[in-house]
Amino acid sequence: YTWTNPVVIPNGAITGASSQGTGQTSISQTLTNLTHSAATVTYTVTPTAGICSGSTFTIVVTVNPMPDVITTPPSQSVCSGTATSIALTSNVIGTSFSWTVSQSGATGATASSGSSIAQTLTATGNAPGSVTYTVTPSANGCTGNPITVIVTVNPIPVATASQSPPICSGSTTNINLASTVTGSTFSWTVVQSGVTGATAASGPSISQTLSTTGNSPGTAVYTITPSANGCSGNPITVTVIVNPIPVAT
To answer: Judging by beta carbons within 10 Å of its beta carbon (0-12, 13-18, 19+), is residue 19 exposed, middle or buried?
Structure first.
């Protein structure tokens, strides 16, 4: 059997097809599709026995492209208790996706399949956890190379504050702020009644000079919100009682 000049459609879409001289009993060639769509190679084969040549015949080989996978975004950070949102696409039409999971310091990730990864993940400690999704594309019976997507799961910070004893008018608060999550920052708003000097701000402690506006005790109620790695925790409140300074007559 002999074949010459295999025809590739579309032209240039496939590499690896070549002519073969007399004496071949099989067509064994490694074909690579350079495009994202199916392409064909047509072999026109001539059989020969002795000095006699038979009628030619054709063999059409369809070469499907290897599917790829594109993840959007390529990696992600989420707050504990929220869902991932990772879209899976491919340059090859009709590609499907499946994934396996490896998780550390987090729960909620499971092996599955689909066109997106949307799973609610929870950090198991006070440090960020990690989930690695290994995504494999498949199309037309061909399996592409897997890729990995790493999701960081940040814990929700929990704030604590030292309670402030009543202070005298003109004195300074001393409220120390802490959190279960290292690196947390704190911001606060304030509602004051019968008091001046309290302002919304941020920092590791609340140190503000408060004064009463009358002859009765006033209050300043601070609402403190912790944040860490883009995740906000539940706010807590601290109430400061400000006693007026008595004036003797």
So the answer is: exposed
| CB of 129 closer than 8 Å to CB of 153 | yes
76, 71, 66, 68: which is closest to 32 by C-alpha? 66
Q: Which amino acid is at 205?
A: S
pLDDT tens-digit map of 70-114: 999 999 999 999 999 999 999 999 999 999 999 999 999 999 999
* CA–CA distance, 130 with 128 (Å, rounded to integer): 7
Structural contact between residues 35 and 13, judged by C-beta atoms closer than 8 angstroms: yes
Buried b (16+ CB within 10 A) or exposed e, 128-153: bbbbebebbbbbeeeebeebebebbb
Asked whether the beta carbons of 164 and 151 are under 8 A apart, the reply is no
Contacts 24+ apart (CB under 8 A), 9-16: 9/39, 9/40, 9/42, 10/35, 10/39, 13/37, 13/39, 14/39, 14/40, 14/41, 14/63
| CB of 154 closer than 8 Å to CB of 131 | no
Q: Which two tokens stand for residue 143?
A: 């399996």
For residues 161 and 175, the answer to whether their CB atoms sit within 8 Å is yes
Angstrom CA distances, 240 to 58, 166, 167, 226, stand at: 92, 6, 8, 19
Q: In angstroms, what CA-CA distances link 185 with 11, 122, 226?
A: 61, 21, 6
Q: pTM above the 0.90 mark?
A: no
* 22 pLDDT tier (thresholds 50, 70, 90): confident
